[in-house]
Amino acid sequence: MEHTEFNKELVNFLNASTTPWHAVKQMTDRLDAAGFQALDEREDWNLESGQGYYVVRNGSSLVAFRTGTGNVARSGIRMVGAHTDSPCLKVKPNPELRRKGYFQLGVEVYGGVLLNPWFDRDLSLAGRVTVLDEEGSVRDALVDFRDPVAFIPSLAIHLDREANSNRTVNAQTDLPPVLMQVPEDDTTRFADLLAQQVTAEQGLKVRKVLGYELSFYDAQPAAVVGLRQDFIASARMDNLLSCFIGLQSLLHSSGEEPALLVCNDHEEVGSMSAEGAQGPFLESVLDRWCGADKAKAIAHSMMISADNAHGIHPNYMDRHDENHGPILNQGPVIKINHNQRYATNSRSAALYRHISDELDLPHQSFVVRSDMGCGSTIGPLTAGTLGVTTLDIGVPQFGMHSIRELIGATDGYTLFRALVAYQDRPALF
């Protein structure tokens, strides 16, 4: 796969993966096309050597793996981890708001959203809807309105003279998007609009909408940008970029060595869920794959937790340690925090540096300023749960947790090449 082809497929993936459920559907479609077999947690598994498999939980988290051709207890597993969720605005259960003839929806902030960029953008709506169909069966359906259906207008500066110097956002009162205008006696139910959308997209005849998990998202598609096309701009780059890189590396590995990709939901809100990194999903899959040899397999294994890093912003250079300011398009970033907000240690970092050096690929390091707090990833959670050697790494980006984020156009492909070599490596240590 070449650099330009990789980015083209990345842009298509980002545009189609508007929610965690849509992202997992995109990944399973690619796994199916590559001959991977779907597994059901409710059934027995009969795993064969040299085969590829995947299992989905809640429709929003996925574990895909190649069993390899050798003994997993001696070979270990080359693991890559990422997360499918991104900070966003989610629709409340009873969302309808009618004010001065405008139909709006109440929203809940999901994760650490950078709120100001959500104003004055074309928004669409997507997610999972659970319905009762005409036959009396309860069914899940994915919906994606695709078209711009909502807008959160800013208050004009004439009515807020301090907007550029002292603006705050009240998540309860300032964020409900405007969807349409309605007459004063309007009785439109959001559930009815959803039922119509399910029927239009999925062909299901809906008797009743029983529940939903829906997110607003930026309707502007991902794009290669910059005077010399140095960058890629998109929503949900954190962390669908790493999901895509991890998936592509697994699909392009030889399959000789045991390798695994886990993409968890709910990282942005702490990972404590049935399908989150603090939940039992990954360990359950390893139990069924490795059986009594799991402890030995983990002792020979490594996890690379791939989650984007903070590139040094040219307008805010003082927010970085002077010796650790990652530059876009200068390689993936090894993330280090001795207080274990990142799980990198000298051993895991050394292996990645060695692989990169063998391929003549660039790499960088990041340490947060000593007077600032440090974010975290699924890396420490996975390391603490499994006891597996772990590396935290990520592509540098601007605008993390904004509605639109920016990466360098070469860094994703660089990480992809390193991960393929990592998954094909006969011995990790």
Automatic annotation (TrEMBL):
Record-linked Pfam families: Peptidase_M18
Keywords from the named record: Aminopeptidase, Hydrolase, Metal-binding, Metalloprotease, Protease, Zinc
Molecular-function GO term, any one: aminopeptidase activity
Cofactor list: Zn(2+)
Keyword set includes Cytoplasm: no
Record bears the keyword Protease: yes
GO biological process: proteolysis
Family: Belongs to the peptidase M18 family.
Protein name (Swiss-Prot/TrEMBL): M18 family aminopeptidase
Taxonomic source organism: Marinobacter oulmenensis
Lineage, broadest ranks: Bacteria, Pseudomonadati, Pseudomonadota, Gammaproteobacteria, Pseudomonadales
